[in-house]
Structures are given as structure tokens and as C-alpha cells.
Amino acid sequence: MKSNIDLLSSAANQARGLAMDAIHACNSGHLGLPLGCAEIGAALFGEALQYNPDEPKWINRDRFILSAGHGSMFLYSWLHLAGYAVPLDEVKKFRVLGSITPGHPEWHETPGVEATTGPLGQGVGNATGYALSQKMAAARFNTASHTIFNNHIFCLAGDGCLQEGVAAEAVAFAGHQKLDNLILIYDSNDVTLDAMASASQSADTALRFKAMGWEVQTVDGHDIPAFLAAVEKAKATAGAPHLIIARTIIGKGIPEVAGTSKAHGEGGAKFVDAARKALGLPDEHFYVSSEVRAFFAEHKKQLAADYEKWKAVYQDWRAENPELARLLDSGLKKEVPADLLEKIPTFPADAKLATRAAGRDVMQPVAAAMPLFISGSADLHGSTLNYIAADKDFTPANRAGRNIRFGIREHGMAAMLNGIAYDGIFRPSGATFLVFADYARPSIRVAALSSLPVIYIFTHDSVAVGEDGPTHQPVETVSGLRVIPNLDVIRPADPEETAGAFAAALERVDGPTLLALTRQVVPMLNEIPVGTRREGVLLGGYIALKETAPLQTILLSSGSELQLALAAAKTLGAGTRVVSLPCFERFDRQPAAYREEVIPSGCRRRVAIEAGVPDLWYRYTGLDGKVVGISRFGLSAPGAKVMEILGITADAVVHAVHSL
Questions:
Q1: CA–CA separation, 428 and 169 (whole Å)
Q2: Residue spans of alpha helices (H) in 370-436
Q3: Buried b / exposed e across 647-656, counting CB within 10 Å, b at 16+?
Q4: CA–CA separation, 257 vs 267, rounded Å?
Q5: Which helix (H) or strand (E) holds 358?
Q6: CA–CA gap between residue 537 and residue 530 (Å, rounded)
Q7: pTM (2 decimals)?
Q8: Between vectors from CA 182 to CA 178 and to CA 187, what angle results, nearest 5°?
Q9: What are the tens digits of pLDDT across the range 83-123?
């Protein structure tokens, strides 16, 4: 009878065969990692990981994130062998339209896939976010009598991932925060896509990680017992995240390309017949032996038994801690209080606030009403004003803190927010200046692609930033974000619209929302009823000022420029309507009848104003209308002067209307 190690070795070779066959069948994909990391997969899914294939969302499972998402056949092979709902027919349909085995892992598509990975380095940030989330969960929900969270977060990454800046940001954060539930496996094979790794890197990775507070081990990635011993040591190490440098041969099993950059993609596919034979695999394609099937079936039974033991503890915990259980349930169900907007006090009519300051005031009752809402900032709490005042920082000594200091790491912050959102217990938000959204944009895009309910609180939203000058004055940024599918971008015009914006962001659970808030003080738009302003943001757009004579002109605006449209309307007369459009995306989702009611198609005399590039506004003004905007970068001067020089004024709106 074969030993478990022998069976795992056989499983590793058969997983290599599955990857070869799938990639050969579609003539597309990446062979290098699935072949080079096969023993790592066998050790993880055959012994080291705590999971239950029949309960893929078990809250105390170990998470495995494949940061090097191009090696997706590695993950699909092992999910199939482990007994997840990834049948062999789906493995055979790798990269086929409509399959659950797409080219790169997608969170919504495949049971057992913990994150949408593809852009290199994202998975490292996601895993760090997962680890942070699970630390917070353990601090909130574990009791002296019951431990319901004690898992580990595993991430497999290669040179490409670790060269990306987003990974470096997350690694530094994880080391500083001593996230000892995080285990990063570095597939160290000396090869990148174009060439040997030495062509583009020469750093000592072990020393680099040690300098950032990580524990480090180096093992032969093809030696299953050695790798398992490294994992056990990593699990037992407290006080620091753990890096396992696994030395591997990329494309192992195809001698013609193994150990070279040609092994990265499908370059070895033409040699697979000979390679399969050399690995001892039969002529039958997509072959898995009965003994390997039996091994994983037995392992699945043991995993299920372990799960049942945990479940008994969990049920006892629920019985003894009903309030905690209700809180956990609310997080997992993404519940939002039905009266959330009512819990936010109205602002004094004479308030003089920037919308970032209004956001600070709105956040406090929101945080009180939603205990699992958390807030972080890229070293800008003092400017973005999104600190939860009644709570403290998340630190190694206080895992229950709801304020996260991400440091000056915008991209890493956004990737970590995604990890928290993937975990699905907490409602994450993070802040920076709007002009730095492009540092975070790849992660924001993945959040939109994955329908993650992340909230971005981005302030200093226009050239009215003023003296900081054009490097800090967004011009194209808002429009650039609006074109990302499934991302809601909201620019509230005053404090009451800001209250509506936060409620809208929290009520949305099927995608991310970005709040673009001002640095400069804006007036209270008291001519518009409070309820109209708040509810109008939930709808994305609304009539801010209705004409009192036959409709002749429609003015449209968002954010701090709405006050200018209202001022222009006074000059233009009774036939002028003003429409506030704080969120294009929410407005476009409204029924056609509502949109027609707000912006009647019969009135084509339309002018929009926004302190940014004008192009997207033409979808609402039409080609017959005009847009008062900015088609250049800003300049360094007081904010009001910049707006005047760049033509963002009520007079400019009046002039545009008269020119039609």
C-alpha cells in the first residue's frame, strides 16, 4: 500500500496531467505554475489546509488565494481533486465560454475561488485584507469559552506578484501589523515571463521580508514532507506573518521547457504527450487514478468530521452569545438598518462645512448604527476626516479597533479593502485624496468586476483644492472613474446630499461606491428641502429647482458646482429647471419614466457645469447642449480664484445658455 506521501506525489503528477490536457485542449493558458507547484498543491489540499468542499463559504476555513492567477489550472485541478463542485467536465472546458473555469480565477464563478486574481500582486493584497478581517473577527466574536475563528490565510505568489508595488505595500503593512495568520508561499523558480528573473531583479527576498517583520523559511518546493513541515512551523509561529520560499522548477515535467521562461505560458503544450508518458500517466487524457480519488474522498471525510466538531462549538457559541450571533449574521447578510438615513441628524440651516467635514459628522451615527462598518485611510485621517471617533485604531494590541492606518499605500489599501470585502463580515471603507485614485484604480476596478461593496471616501475633489496646485487638483479623475462599469461615483453638493451619499453607499451591496468630497466649504442649499436632497442622492439625480413658468432651459450639475447652477437659474428666469446629478450610475438605473420626468426629452436647451473634463456630460445635455467644464490641468492659486480663472462660474453658465 502506498504511503500518504506517495499518494500525494502521484496526485501531483496527475494534477500536472490535468493542466497539460486542459491547456493543450484550448491551446491557451499557462503551464509553468501548475506544473512547477504541483507538490505544493498536493501538500496544501491533501493535508495542510482546513476546509470543507461541501461548505465552501465556511467562515472558519483556511483561505487559499492564488495571487499568480495566470496559473489558474493549478487551482482548478486541486479544487476538482479535493471534491469541490468543480467536476471534471468543467476542467475539460478550461477557458471555454460559460464554464466555471475561466482563464483567470473569478470569485463569483467557481466554488473554492476566494478572490478574483489576474493582475499580478492583487492576491497578496487580498490575502492581507483577509488576514486583517479574520483578526478583527476573532477579536469581536471569539469568547473565553468558544473559539470560532482560528484559521490561516494562505497565498501563493510568484516573482511577478512580488515585483508589483501593490504586493510590497501589503507585505509592509502585514509585517507592521504582525498578521501571524498570514502565510505567503513564494514560488521561487528564477524565471519571469520574458526571461530569467536575474534580468530584472537581484534583491535578497528573504532579507527583504525579514526587514519588514516577517518570519522566513526556504524549502524545496518539490519535497512534500519538507514543505508540510514548513507549513506546520508557520502555523505555530506567533507574532509575525510567515513567508515560505519554495524553490521550484517552472514547467517541471516537460524537459524541453522546464526551468526556462518558455515554460511560463503554453510553450510546452506541444510536448505534452511525451511528458505525460514520462510522468507515468496513461494515454487516457484528464486521467485521475482510482487510488488518488480514494485518497481525496477519505480526506474529504476527515475534513467534514473536523468541520462538524467546529460546528458543535459554533452552535454552543450561538446559544450562549445570541447578541454576538445576531451581529455576525448581520455582517454575513450585509444587512443595513432600514432607517439608516433617519439616524443621521439633519444639519443646521446655517452650517458652513466642506462635504468632507459633513462626511465626518455623518460617519459617526452610521458607525454607531453599523458596528461592523470599518474605516481606514492612507495616512490622511486628519484631512479626509473619516475617523470613527468612538473607536480606536486596529493594532497588534487591539484587533477590535475599527480605524485602520494603512500608511501611504493607496494601492495596497484598496487591495486590502477588497480582501476584507471578499471575507464578507465587515463593511470596509478607505480614504485618500481623489487625485490619488489612480494609485488605487486597478484594485477599484477589480472590486467593481467582483461586485464587492467597498466604499471609497476620496476628498479634495476638484481644482478648488487651490494652492496645492495641479498635482493635487483632479480634473479628469471623476470622469475616469465614472467609466468603470459597476462603480458608483457620488459627488454630493452639500452636507444633506452627503448624508444621502453615505446612505446610498452603505445600502449598495452589489458593487463599490466612491464618494468624492470637497476640501472647500460649500453653502447649505436650503432652497431645496432636506428630504429632497437626501432621497435625491439615493436616486442618483433629482429636480433641485423646478421651473415656475413653461420649461425653457435645464441646468445640470453635481457636487460643489450645483450652487453655481442654482445661482445662474435666478438670472435666467422662471423657465429654468436645475437638476442635481450627484451619481450618474444610480440615475441611469432608475426607470425610464423617472429619468424622463427629471430631464424631459422635449427640452433640448441644456447646459451642464462641473469642475472637470466635460465629455461625459454630453450624454445628458445632448449635442444641442453645452457643458461648462475644464479641459486642461489646474493651477496654483486660492481655490476660488482657480475656479474663476478656469471659468467655473454662474456667469459662465448664463453665457452658455444665451449662446444656444
A1: 18
A2: 381-384, 410-423
A3: bbbbebbbeb
A4: 8
A5: helix 355-369
A6: 11
A7: 0.97
A8: 125
A9: 999 999 999 999 999 999 999 999 988 999 999 999 999 99
